[in-house]
Design goal:
Blueprint: H1 5-30, E1 34-39, H2 46-57, E2 63-69, H3 74-80, E3 86-90, H4 99-112, E4 120-124, H5 131-134, E5 141-147, H6 154-157, H7 159-164, E6 167-171, H8 183-193, E7 198-201, H9 210-226
Parallel strand pairs: 1-4, 1-5, 2-3, 2-4, 5-6, 6-7
Helix pairs in contact: 1-4
Length: 227
């Protein structure tokens, strides 16, 4: 059976990306640096999540961020105010970060700080529910955000994103009293798509759930460092 040329090209691209992702992971491991790939649709709250998270996380661990965006450095500028190393990666027309982009970002990070001095690298991917999940970047864990304003059906409509996630953060739960939204239906859809994923409800307004999220990160860092 012969694959169409378009399928062959796609497989080759994914194969090349996977090869570079493995190289990235080897680098991360050599630096003893845990890497998280933070993914979601636009507006789910990734940058605000990182702003709040890093304020507390930086008291216990040394952190850095690779900030993916299609055309601007606006989100990177927000995170730089926290006085941590931030490297913006502008993807142009690409709707995701790939392993080569992250490799380039890591080289720029190395000019800012010795990665051996870091504990965790947070990679904020481009806002998109499809492509980021298909392109490994060498991360140790994938974190997917889903805001309740997006609807209960998203894990079913975009299964790759949620199937690949190690942790799913349900964001903007402070809006639950104001929306016709069934969070139990959403959790059921998540479970049917990925029963192994951890799930945390979180709000950047009330800060509910952030203790659980911070605890999840801390445990992952300590376990990684002790392996």
């Amino acid at each position: 059976m012969h694959l169409p040329i378009s399928d062959k090209i796609e497989l080759n691209i994914l194969h090349q990306n996977s090869h570079q992702a493995e190289k990235n992971k080897i680098k991360f491991n050599n630096y003893n640096l845990l890497c998280l790939n933070i993914m979601s649709s636009p507006g789910a709250g990734k940058t605000r999540l990182l702003e709040i998270t890093l304020e507390d996380l930086s008291k216990k661990f040394h952190s850095a961020v690779l900030e993916g965006d299609m055309t601007t450095n606006l989100d990177a500028a927000r995170l730089e105010k926290l006085n941590i190393p931030v490297v913006p990666i502008t993807t142009g027309r690409a709707c995701h970060l790939d392993a080569n982009m992250v490799s380039g970002g890591l080289k720029l990070l190395e000019k800012k700080i010795n990665p051996n001095l870091l504990d965790i690298l947070l990679v904020e991917n481009v806002g998109n529910l499809v492509c980021p999940a298909e392109f490994e970047i060498g991360e140790h864990f994938k974190v997917a955000l889903l805001s309740i304003t997006e609807g209960e059906d998203k894990p079913l409509k975009y299964p790759i994103m949620f199937r690949e996630a190690d942790l799913i953060l349900i964001t903007k739960v402070d809006l639950l009293p104001h929306l016709n939204f069934d969070i139990n239906e959403l959790k059921s859809n998540i479970a049917s798509t990925n029963p192994k994923a951890d799930v945390i409800e979180i709000s950047s307004i009330t800060k509910s759930g952030f203790d659980l999220w911070q605890d999840w990160i801390s445990k992952k860092i300590l376990k990684f460092k002790n392996n």
